[in-house]
Amino acid sequence: xxxxSLVPEGAPSSLYRSFIPMQALAINGHRVHVEERNxxxxxxxxxxxxxxxxxxxxxxxxxxxxxQLRQAGVGIVYDNDFDLTAAPSGHPVAAALRGLGGxxxxxxxxxxxxxxxxxxxxxxxxxxxxxAAGAADVQVVENFLPPTFTRxxxxxxxxxxxxxxxxxxxxxxxxxxxxxxxxxxLLERHLHLRLLAIGTDLGISSPxxxxxxxxxxxxxxxxxxxxxxxxxxxxxxSFNQTRSNVKLKEYxxxxxxxxxxxVGGYAWMGEAEGGRLVADGEWxxxxxxxxxxxxxxxxxxxxxxxxxxxxxxxxxxxxxxxVFEHAAAAGRAG
Length: 334
Fold this sequence. Notes:
This protein has twelve helices and twelve strands. By secondary structure, the chain is of the alpha/beta class.
């Protein structure tokens, strides 16, 4: 197949929803191209491809393009990884959807899911919401890992390091769940402990706390490999119920035992996947228990690596092919 993926400029999630899967399809012999731009003016170069994949692009120019492509027999796949309509008050995503502009963005997406031949989402919860919005064919395709996301060789560090890698929007979850108090308490109880935050500054004042700006994805394994425990807190709100579990896949692939909220894609996971779920209000005790139990960390690390080894995109390329082949067939059928 010949597939073009259109993604908005500066959308970090396009890594999981476009670049990684498209690379896997290319390795499997398909002709793919990823175009990172907010609008495509000339549809001409796209009229001869089999499928065009739209990640998050649903505004009027994108829908106009999608209609032109459908008339030419090109299959249309729409893809998103969170529910725009459910962003809670005060959340950075909600702030971008205020007023008439926000209402228009939500209406645009609902129109796009009804226009697409196939809609894909990383979780069943989000897929159900798109079906309720009128999408005729919705498929679940999880976020998978690239084959290059592996643990580099590193020397053992001193003491124990607890880490968190997250985009800035997750500071909302951090504040809502009171994770800062749990981490400060941990520093006070364990003089050998260090904290590492990547992407989101936790605002902790301590010589044993380090913040790093968000890393290039290829550099992330090397930074995370410094951690002995990693966390993934999510507030239990409707918006987060649609979140994927890719963060825990990344931790597990690097052999890092994780602690996560039982929310969204994390809710079904546990020790077989390399970590433990933590209820609201229990972060301090859960962190302490894992920090002091080296044997548990070793056991969870091994379990996580076994699970994550099955979550590499090349092992799931058949799922991707099935989605795009179905969309291509729908496009040809008109």
